[in-house]
Amino acid sequence: EKGGYDSFMEKEINDQPQAVGDTLLGRSDADGRLTLDELRVSPEELKSVNKIMVLACGTSAYAGQVAKYAIEHWCRLPVEVELSHEFRYRDPIVDANTLIVAISQSGETMDTLMAVRYAKEQGAKVLAICNTNGSTIPREADAVLYTHAGPEIAVASTKAFLAQITAAYLLGLYLAQIRGNKFQGEIKDILADLSKVPDKIQQVLDNSGQIKELAQLMSETGSVLFLGRHVGFPVAMEGALKLKELAYIHAEGFAAGELKHGPIALIEEGQPVFVVVPSPRGRDSLHAKVVSNIQEIRARGAKTIVIAEEGDDAVKAYAEHIFYVPETPPLLAPLLTTVPLQIFACELATAKGFDVDQPRNLAKSVTVE
Ligand code: F6R
Fold it and tell me: Which residues form the SIS domain (predicted)?
């Protein structure tokens, strides 16, 4: 049942090309029209939406943060992302024109379920992105978009995360289609780029020997920092969460731009820092800014471990280790850059002799508030 792998976690990391491929499957036609017929809310209802609010916890909330960048860019709709357990306790502003997107792998997370109920009481429409057929959150939601990652057994989420991001991209493209924000040709191009992602994830998996070796060498490390910017920011947060959960190592994710506002004080000789580097083809010189962050921490003795796009030579001089992922449009990059971080955490925890499928103190679905 572990498909020849030593753990479900390893299997599920390796299932990711299929999880993303299956989530895309059958959801658009040959002309690039999205056909989310299963959605159960009418295009008219979705046209009247003036704000999206994503509610989720943990890894699922990081998927929501990735989605925010894409949906705002494609649909010109404001997207807020909020932890479900914070939402209900702060008098949030939601009404009939708010679309709540509740993201939950299990569909049973009590914090998210209670937030969904509260939002419905306020008159908001709720759409669930969920991996578990017939679970409570999609049953109570007005609409559901299932992720087709297959059952996720390991407690820490991996393939469900990539499938959630994929489903959220489809939702964003669908909203852009019905609201007329994008030409059909552009939507078709993005879908074509998405359809190439599963093979690219496979390439990352096939080239994971080096990151595994590094993880084994670092099994005595006491603390690891993760930096990212734009869509790389939630990826950094997710990389840190995986390492905490699986290897019980202190890990923090930061927005790279925050470095000089405080976290750079943590940098001392030998401090390992992962940096998720934006594509050099992206907008607004973000690439150059992150490269200069790498220089700054390197000058202070950090051990810099860089995840960058193939062909990005500018980072080479400042990276102690560098892992390349295939080229893809910047907004889609999290589907690739997350994978080495998952592998790193899984491998390091295994090297420490921990049970990666059942980390201490954690449950697969958190059914209490
Ligand atoms: C992290 C992890 C948790 C879940 C969170 C939400 O690896 O698994 O952070 O992502 O508990 O769970 P769902 O998505 O089932 O609502």
Answer: 42-181, 214-359
CA–CA dist 366, 31 (Å, integer): 41
| Residue 226, C-beta contacts closer than 8 angstroms, at least 6 positions apart | 236, 237, 239, 240, 251, 252, 253, 254, 273, 274, 275, 276, 341
Pocket of ligand 1 (CB under 6 A): 57-60, 104-106, 109, 112, 156-157, 241, 245, 365-366
Helix (H) or strand (E) holding 65: helix 58-75
- CB within 8 A of 221, min separation 6: which ones? 249, 272, 348
Of 200, 177, 168, the residue nearest 65 (C-alpha): 168
Poorest-confidence range of 31-35, 104-108, 181-185, 197-201?
A: 181-185
Q: In whole angstroms, give the CA distance from residue 27 to residue 246.
A: 34
Among the listed residues 2, 51, 212, 364, the single catalytic one is: 364
Cβ atoms of residues 309 and 279 within 8 Å? yes
**pLDDT at 360 exceeding the cut of 90:** no
Tell me what ipTM this predicted complex has: 0.98
3-state helix, strand, coil in the chain (%, to 5): 50, 15, 35
